[in-house]
């Protein structure tokens, strides 16, 4: 990564109206977020976000998001490698299927997960006879989050793998390195920034997961009621608590985005 | 010059877009609530044929009955279109407080109506038009063999209820307190429809929903009534908003609901008298 030279602001040759429309676009996102902050009941903020139910939701959200991010890395790295490096018939279809959760409404994901892992589901019914029950458990939350977050990791890692190319890997293997040691000592270090970006995005997506969780896992304090579900529920009776918790989630999201994108230019 | 016009247009467009969603409609306020001034209490009055839209916000549990009532109303009022919005009562309340335009509002409990009355957004006194009680819903075949409220505490039965924050959940809590039986649900949903969905899909062994939900779900679930339910009855109020564009028309709709025709339709869906 090269050092960026500090520049004075210039329009860089784009028409002035483009900049104006761009500003409107940016405002469309920034104004609601800032407005949210103006709705916060600041004197009671600390009390609202540290209530036992808020803390339980926050702790559960962090725990499940970390778990699903780990699962995403575990499953996503091999997936991205297969998509970036191998060739086989039907690969394009496979990629399209894997990226499907990006465009599906999460509630549809939840229904699909129920159809697979629910008590009467395709796999769930066999699991049930073995005494394993997934629905209404924290495992269901992690599964739902992994389902929606996995494409983020696969997408950014696959892009990084393609950009890195396979020349170094080819050299390493002609020097006698086994495929596994090429993967560990050449490929992984090369694409580490892409992997980190993908993992952070997956974490953020998991943290915000709502629809699939509500449909598939249910909502019980400390077990399946994550922060977004808690916000949705609090809104019914205590809008101030909902707004305060929403702001907490915004702050976490902002931190995540700054960590990921703030330090370097995006391609 | 064209550039300037374009950019100005873009800015104006976006700003009005943002502002449009934020400005609450407070209504005229000085217009007195007078339901029978123009003889509007009579649903069959000769109204001149002009295109009018009546906007009705109603609790999710009223979906099928209000859809039927709205088409009856449109039949007896040529030129009038009834636009229906269904959602959780608390959702509707916050939408109206934020300025959503509604002429008639009907909720699943009096607490939510009180929020609007307190905010001075309702004309006069809301009228109670129906009541609903809880019933146990079980998947077809009743796999966990539930026959009473006490059975919901069976250790291996997966029970889903509404969270205390929503009307069906506060009714559930009331019954728990009255009976001294504490449930340990596997999930506390924020909408009664989510409870029903988890029962009808067989994920849960039992759920506490309204009598009308069991009625509407048809063959997918079986309903088990229990005497303790009488201790927690939700009453449904209907009211006309302060901001109503056609208060007389809105009052006529409210009258239809509380009148004989409305009561027949509500009763066939399982609602009881208030």
Structure notes:
The complex is a heterodimer of chains A (267) and B (274). Chain A has 267 residues and is mainly alpha-helical. Chain A has helices at residues 16-39, 45-49, 52-85, 91-103, 106-117, 124-129, 138-164, 167-174, 179-208, 211-216, 227-237, 239-262. The relative contact order of chain A is 0.14. The model of chain A has no long low-confidence stretch (mean pLDDT 89). Chain B is of the alpha/beta class and 274 residues long. Chain B has helices at residues 2-22, 63-76, 89-97, 110-118, 167-179, 192-200, 211-217, 247-258, 260-268, and strands spanning 52-59, 80-87, 104-106, 122-139, 159-162, 187-189, 206-210, 221-224, 233-241. Chain B folds into two domains: 32-131 and 235-268, D-Maltodextrin-Binding Protein, domain 2 (3-Layer(aba) Sandwich), CATH 3.40.190.10; 133-233, Periplasmic binding protein-like II (D-Maltodextrin-Binding Protein, domain 2, 3-Layer(aba) Sandwich), CATH 3.40.190. In chain B, strands 1, 2, 3, 4, 5, 6, 7, 8 and 9 form a nine-stranded mixed sheet that branches. Classes of the chains: A mainly alpha (267), B alpha/beta (274). Chains A and B meet through helix 1 and helix 11 of A and helix 1, helix 3, strand 6 and helix 6 of B.
């Amino acid at each position: 990564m090269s050092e960026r030279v500090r520049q004075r602001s210039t329009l860089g040759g784009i028409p002035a109206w483009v900049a104006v429309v761009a500003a409107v676009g940016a405002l469309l996102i920034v104004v609601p977020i800032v407005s949210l902050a103006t709705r916060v009941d600041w004197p009671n903020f600390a009390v609202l976000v540290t209530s036992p139910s808020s803390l339980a939701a926050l702790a559960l959200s962090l725990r499940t998001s970390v778990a699903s991010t780990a699962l995403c890395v575990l499953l996503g790295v091999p997936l991205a490698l297969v998509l970036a490096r191998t060739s086989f018939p039907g690969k394009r279809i496979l990629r399209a299927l894997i990226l499907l959760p990006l465009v599906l409404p999460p509630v549809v994901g939840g229904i699909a997960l129920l159809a697979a892992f629910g008590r009467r589901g395709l796999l769930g019914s066999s699991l049930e006879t073995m005494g394993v029950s997934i629905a209404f458990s924290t495992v269901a939350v992690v599964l739902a989050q992994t389902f929606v977050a996995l494409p983020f990791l696969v997408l950014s890692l696959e892009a990084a793998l393609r950009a890195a190319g396979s020349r170094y890997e080819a050299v390493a293997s002609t020097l006698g390195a086994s495929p596994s040691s090429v993967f560990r000592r050449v490929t992984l270090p090369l694409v580490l920034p892409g992997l980190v970006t993908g993992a952070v995005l997956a974490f953020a997506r998991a943290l915000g997961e709502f629809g699939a969780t509500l449909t598939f896992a249910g909502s019980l304090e400390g077990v399946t009621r994550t922060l977004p579900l808690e916000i949705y529920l609090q809104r019914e009776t205590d809008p101030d608590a909902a707004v305060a918790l929403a702001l907490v989630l915004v702050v976490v999201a902002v931190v995540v985005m700054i960590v990921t994108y703030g330090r370097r230019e995006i391609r | 010059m064209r550039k300037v016009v374009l950019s100005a247009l873009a800015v104006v467009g976006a700003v009005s877009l943002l502002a449009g969603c934020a400005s609450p409609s407070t209504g005229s306020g000085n217009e007195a609530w007078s339901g029978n001034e123009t003889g509007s209490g009579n649903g069959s009055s000769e109204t001149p044929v002009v295109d009018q839209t009546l906007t009705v916000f109603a609790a999710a549990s009223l979906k099928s009955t209000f859809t039927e009532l709205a088409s009856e109303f449109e039949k007896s009022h040529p030129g009038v279109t009834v636009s229906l919005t269904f959602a959780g009562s608390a959702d509707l309340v916050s939408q109206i407080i934020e300025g959503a335009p509604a002429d008639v509002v009907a909720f699943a409990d009096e607490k939510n109506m009180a929020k609007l009355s307190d905010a001075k957004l309702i004309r006069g006194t809301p009228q109670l038009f129906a009541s609903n009680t809880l019933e146990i819903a079980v998947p077809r075949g009743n796999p966990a063999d539930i026959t009473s409220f006490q059975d919901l505490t069976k250790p291996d039965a997966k029970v889903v209820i509404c969270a205390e924050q929503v009307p069906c959940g506060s009714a559930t809590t009331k019954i728990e307190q009255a009976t001294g039986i504490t449930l340990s649900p596997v999930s506390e949903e924020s909408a009664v429809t989510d409870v029903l969905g988890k029962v009808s899909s067989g994920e849960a062994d039992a759920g506490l929903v309204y009598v009308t939900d069991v009625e509407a779900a048809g063959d997918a679930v079986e309903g088990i009534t229990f005497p303790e339910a009488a201790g927690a009855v939700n009453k449904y109020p209907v009211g006309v908003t302060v901001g109503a564009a056609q208060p007389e028309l809105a009052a006529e709709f409210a009258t239809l609901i509380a009148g004989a025709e409305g009561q027949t339709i509500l009763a066939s869906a399982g609602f009881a008298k208030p």
